[in-house]
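Retry 2 of 3 after timeout on previous attempt. Resubmitting structure tokens to design endpoint.
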């Protein structure tokens, strides 16, 4: 049994990365943001799903995302995300909202934004992904998409037990686990929709 990864002939418990990213993009769009950037994690199944959903949702909303606004960093690595945030802040046409690969990595980006004399969300809005506890105690509280890790884990255990206890009748499946948007204070309302 795999979590957030697909193997041939094995059960995969998958977080709804496609739906989660779509919900985040639509949320910032509804707040008036049109110039988005995405610092994504290393290329994995999770990243490919999130990135495809980001592009697809932006396309459906009529948003054109410049190539220089899509950068790769490492998941759960505030240092590499800080470096990529500096790259985005140096752009002539700086984005109004940055999507970070995960909530922990956002800390690196937040620090760089503050070091540049800018504030979240007044000067630049930010969203994360995962919904870890840290995201909800930061100031400002991070808007993020919370993955349902408890359900991911329990479904994986149940599937594994089913495979062990009933090997003759067990069939692999792909189980999608939904999450939810946690609205924080890190996304400003843009005046020019």
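Retry 2 succeeded. Sequence:
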């Amino acid at each position: 049994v795999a979590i957030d990864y697909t193997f041939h002939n094995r059960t995969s418990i998958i977080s709804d990365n496609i739906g989660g990213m779509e919900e985040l993009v639509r949320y910032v769009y509804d707040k008036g943001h049109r110039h988005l950037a995405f610092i994504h994690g290393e290329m994995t199944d999770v990243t490919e799903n999130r990135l495809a959903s980001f592009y697809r949702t932006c396309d459906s909303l009529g948003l054109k995302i410049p190539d220089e606004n899509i950068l790769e960093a490492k998941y759960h690595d505030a240092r590499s995300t800080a470096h990529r945030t500096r790259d985005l802040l140096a752009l002539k046409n700086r984005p109004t909202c940055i999507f970070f690969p995960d909530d922990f990595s956002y800390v690196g980006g937040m620090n760089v934004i503050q070091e540049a004399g800018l504030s979240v969300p007044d000067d630049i809005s930010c969203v994360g992904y995962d919904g870890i506890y840290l995201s909800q105690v930061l100031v400002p509280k991070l808007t993020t998409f919370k993955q349902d890790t408890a359900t991911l884990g329990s479904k994986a255990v149940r599937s594994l037990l089913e495979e062990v206890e009933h090997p003759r009748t067990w069939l692999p499946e792909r189980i999608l686990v939904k999450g939810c948007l946690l609205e924080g204070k890190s996304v400003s309302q843009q005046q020019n929709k």
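Attempt log closed. Residues 137 and 184 are 10 Å apart (CA to CA).
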